[in-house]
Amino acid sequence: MTDNWMGFHVVLASASPRRKELLAQLGIEADIRPSHVEEESWEKKPDQIVMELSRQKAEDVAAGCCEGTMVIGADTVVALGNEVLGKPGTPMRAYEMIEMLQGRSHQVFTGVTVLLCLGRGKCHGITFAERTDVHVYPMTAEEIAAYAACGEPLDKAGAYGIQGRFAAYIQGIAGDYSNVVGLPLGRLCQEVKRLLEDREDD
């Protein structure tokens, strides 16, 4: 599936080691070039928010890339009802978020933008969002406090990492597991395949 990517130098517009590891599963060693754009969205719906932010990141990095580069930008949020939960930053905020999520179901949205740099400032690209439903077991106050204080949730959307200690509290998921980690690999491969086919037809 990824053989037809090999003609492009793949750049990941993200500092996330988890996204780099996910691409490595596909045999792709991406060059890491985090975007420094100030992330801001006026969208209200989670899927629209992550698509807009992924596009901002990809476009920011693509502006400095040469022809033959494939730039991948991504953004992930956790949504509980109409509330979007970003990265907590502090153990106290992590506790509050996990307390909201425990014993309930929520959604994880990842927006992805793929840009093919064609030279002379031109790009051919696509943006999409993937959704996964996550079900969390009920947790005691002690369990929430212990996880919030362990350091793992501070830089993660929704204050948890499904591939880390929080796996002990995941009852199940409906959708793509890799999407919850930060990059929906199956959907990404299908979209890149279509993108490259569209380019060949132009």
State the share of residues found in helices, binned by percent: 25-40%
CATH class category name? Alpha Beta
Q: Provide the residue-averaged pLDDT.
A: 92
Task: Note the gap between the termini.
Answer: 22 Å
CATH architecture: Alpha-Beta Complex
Residue share in β-strands:
25-35%
Q: Segments where pLDDT lies below 50 for 5+ residues? A: none
Could you give the order of the helices and strands? EHEHEEHEEHEHH
Shape: elongated
How large, in whole angstroms, is the Cα Rg?
Answer: 17 Å
Note the main sheet: 7 strands, mixed
Protein topology:
Elements (H helix, E strand, L loop, with lengths): L8 E4 L4 H9 L5 E2 L13 H17 L6 E12 L2 E3 L5 H11 L3 E15 L2 E15 L4 H8 L21 E5 L2 H5 L3 H17 L1
Parallel strand pairs: 1-2, 1-3
Antiparallel strand pairs: 3-4, 3-5, 5-6, 6-7
Give a structural overview.
Its cofactor is a divalent metal cation. It catalyses: dTTP + H2O = dTMP + diphosphate + H(+); UTP + H2O = UMP + diphosphate + H(+). The active site is at 75 (proton acceptor). It holds the Pfam family Maf. With 202 residues, this protein is α/β, with parallel strands linked by helices. It has one domain (3-201): Alpha-Beta Complex (Maf protein). It is 33% helix and 28% strand. It contains six helices and seven strands. Strands 1, 2, 3, 4, 5, 6 and 7 form a seven-stranded mixed β-sheet that branches. Strand 5 and strand 6 (122-136) form a beta hairpin. Helix 3 packs across helix 4 (141-148). The chain is elongated. The mean pLDDT is 92.
